[in-house]
Amino acid sequence: MKEEEATMSQVRQVGLLAAGCQPWNKDVCAANGDRFAYCATLAIYIYQLDH
């Protein structure tokens, strides 16, 4: 029986909006197919999927 290798994708942090920072931008939490944002209590973390 032939074993199949699993391919894994990784995510890396590409941005951080820390508490107390005021970004004056209308697209603060924009996302697309390869990026997502995680909103924590004191910060917003932005990640990108590495294929």
UniProtKB/TrEMBL annotation:
It comes from the Eukaryota. This is WD repeat domain 17. It comes from Mus musculus (Mouse). PANTHER family: WD REPEAT-CONTAINING PROTEIN 17.
